[in-house]
Amino acid sequence: MQENLTQRKRNQRDTWNAIHQAAFGLASSKGPGAVTVDEISAQAGVSRRTFFNYFPVKEDAVLGTRSAELDPAVVERFHASTEDELTRVVHLFVSVVRTCLPEETAAQRRAIIAEHPQLRARLAELLAQVERLVYSAVHAETDQGGMHLPEGAGAHAFEALLALAGGITKFAFSRYHESGAESLDPFISETIALFRKVVETTR
């Protein structure tokens, strides 16, 4: 049973990759706007229905992106973390972003966006999905009394924390994207430290 499940997941991964590579190749040669779902499906050897089982929109196939997800294991790690609140929320943001922007497709994503900047609009939609999921997780913990900010921080402190953590995450991903580096990890801690330093020196 486990072998069958593993094989099914392999097949799903291979189909996902085949559709993405077909979409990326066609978009690179013809431009994203000139490529149709039917062309991508034919090139990948799948049906139109199968295409939409894997990608909700054509742009995701071209970019190698997925819809954002909030894994229960990620939420559990967030609840269990003993790091400070800002670091906890940033790591939650990063974990959710990674569900929709796989690092294994990052190089091709950089290349196609450089050629066709209009594709950034889809990234913005995905990041909006991320924000909604993170906000729901943080507010759920807040309602349960699990989040703590300094006394006197004010009624809007949690909204400010979410906005700051979201800004740090976007800045870190932007630096990672521009650098061409293989891993995002070094940029996360560096960006948290940078934002803390900026806030401290501008008080």
Automatic annotation (TrEMBL):
In terms of superkingdom, the source organism counts as Bacteria
> Key word Glycosyltransferase present in the record?
no
Which part of the chain is the HTH tetR-type domain?
13-73
Q: Which residues bind DNA?
A: 36-55
| Signal peptide start-end | none
One molecular function GO term is: transcription cis-regulatory region binding
Keywords, ordered alphabetically: DNA-binding, Transcription, Transcription regulation
Quote the protein name from its UniProt record.
TetR family transcriptional regulator
Can you name the source organism?
A: Nesterenkonia sandarakina
